[in-house]
Amino acid sequence: MRTFAGVEDEDKWLAEGIAGIQHNAFFMHRALDANNLREVLKYSVLMLSELRTSKLSPQKYYDLYMRAFDQLRQLEIFFKDESRHGLPVVDLYELVQHAGNILPRTYLLCTVGSVYIKSKQAPSKDVLKDLVEMCRGVQHPIRGLFLRSYLAQVSRDKLPEIGSDYEGDANTVMDAVEFVLQNFTEMNKLWVRVQQQGPGTVREKQEKERNELRDLVGKNLHVLGQIEGVDLEMYKETVLPRVVEQIVNCKDELAQYYLMECIIQVFPDEYHLQTLDTLLAACTQLMPTVDTKIVLTQLMDRLSNYAASSSDVLHEFLQVEAFAKLSNAIGKVIETQLEMPIVGAMTLFVSLLTFTLRVHPDRLDYVDQVLGACVVKLSSVPKLEDARAMKQVVALLSAPLEKYNDIVTALTLSNYPRVMDHLDDGTNKVMAMLIIQSIMKNDSCISTADKVEVLFELIKGLIKDLDGTNTEELDEEDFQEEQNSVARLIHMLDNEEPEEMLKIICVVRKHLMTGGPRRLPFTVPPLVFSALRLVRQLESQDGDIAGEDVPATPRAVFQILNQTIEVLSSVPCPELALRLYLQCAEAASDCDLEPVAYELFTQAFILYEEEIADSKEQVTAIHLIVGTLQRINVFGVENRDTLTHKATGYSARLLKKPDQCRAVYACSHLFWVDDLDGIKDGERALLCLRRALRIANAAQQMANATRGNSGPVTLFVEILNKYIYFFEKGNPHITPSDIQSLVELINNEMQSDNGNTTIHSDPFFTSTLRYIRFQKQKGGLMGEKYDPIKL
């Protein structure tokens, strides 16, 4: 056995070997030039004797072998030319068998044998059989492997395959196959004999060396796969059984794994499909330590690609019952290999599912069967903690989404949610995001309450806190992205049948209400607008529609909305709740539901009074209230007066005078609505403007008292524009003299500001005056109205 030396020692021995080859090759070439057969054989034997070393690693030995190989090519050319050495090739074949040592003798025999076959003076099968038997004399693993590799190389183009020059009555394809199989068998035995022995570091080095040698053995299978004439029948009856027998019997982990891999890669896909029983049986007979999952995965990937290459081959998969066989084999492997990690089992299921989706995309029962087997395996594990296994489960769950481009199909798989239940919270969220992204990408519409129920069970990791999770620990940006995705999803839930749509809304609400205070501000608004869409739909159908369970009426929807927004207001998130109340009130107005609209406005005012304390938020809220109230025309006189009185009262009680002023003059629009049926109470609109003017004057006085000057006249200019608006709209209580007085007031304020005599320095005021002049110059009815105003 070779002892393991240092790199420097091996380099020295390699250098000595190369030097020996070069030295003897020099004299061999001199003899070749002199056509001296005796000397050629003498020095070729000495040169090839350098390959007898046992000191080199496979990699170093390969370097030495290649030096000798180059010389053997020259030697073969010499042997071909009988005129140079003067001996018939038969006699030469006999002569080289008398060389001294077995290794040089066999190399020479293979070289002359190549020439002998080419001469066709003997059947190639006889020469090949003789050569493969002669090589048995070299039993040193490394030397024997390289010798047989040389034999395979020089004989490759001389095999009696179909279409070759050596095919004939005495030579058949079976002879070529028999030769390669025999050489393969012997090479595998030699390879296996490089056993792992010694301490750990030595075993690791031996393992590495055996890996370096494996291609020498695998080349035989490549040759078998390339021989012309090896049809399916021959492969099924002879080639595969012989190769599999050798693989199973060698009882070597590395050899079994590599050679099974070679079989799958080398031979055609249709052969694999027709010999599936044999291949799968071999997989179950491999050593327990062999990574069978990779072998099976590669096999299924090959078959999947084959199925995807053409629809014409799919019937072959049905004929051989490929799915059932693969499924049973995987079950047996997982059952027998108790030490297989969970990630290995998940990898197998992913490959089987990929195969199923490509070959039998219409068989959802097959897909569900794979997911069911996955559930059984996951149930045997206390808790799935392996990150790689998690990744495989995500791949398993993603495959149906990618194949069908339709989440609705995945929702019909009963085992799909059961697989998701085994994911940890983080991975569950990742998978939920993938599901939502799939829906968005494919513009899928979920149209039944039952499917919505299943869907929201799948994405529950996003819509509520799972056991042991805390939303406070989540990254804010990630959390917002998750909730925005859920919000987008809600808009993809739709059904043209109002009864079913109402059921969908109820299902979604049931799930969203468990989301907690951080999620509700994201998820409630889309639910509200989805429900309002249903209200518009019911309104367009001109009448209530009675469903079997819950009557789909606007009033029923508004009851749900009121309860939903009430939860949001208690989060607390009063500003958002107020906006939603106002949206619903406007929708109730469109449906001519005055009591509902009034109640919703009442809730909005209660929120304003009790929950909104920030002055900036109060300003925003009062303008929203005023704007919404102005657009609503469903209220009777009493209800409208109550609400407008409240709005104007709140406006006048804002903290800052400028905010008070703007809110009060905005209230003027509540008394003058510019449409056919709108309210036109010019007197009360003018009262709002005069009140706003008083507040603006008080604001100027306060500014003068605190800062020493009255500041800009923006508020007065804004009020002036409101006067002009109502003046043009025909409010009889606003006269040209009112506008004239206000213009003069602004001019006086601007002149008195620190004695500044520059008029019209305010751009807004300048633009307003320009507009008045434009209207005066335009003429017509409007020009006549503006004519009394003197600027």
UniProtKB/TrEMBL annotation:
Keywords: Cytoplasm, Endosome, Golgi apparatus, Membrane, Protein transport, Transport. One of its GO terms (cellular component) is Golgi apparatus. InterPro entries: ARM-type_fold (IPR016024), Vps35 (IPR005378), Vps35_C (IPR042491). SUPFAM superfamilies: ARM repeat. It holds the Pfam family Vps35. Its main location: cytoplasm. It is found in: Cytoplasm; Endosome membrane; Golgi apparatus, trans-Golgi network membrane; Prevacuolar compartment membrane. It is a peripheral membrane protein. GO terms for biological process: protein transport. Plays a role in vesicular protein sorting. Belongs to the VPS35 family. This is Vacuolar protein sorting-associated protein 35. It comes from Cardamine amara subsp. amara.
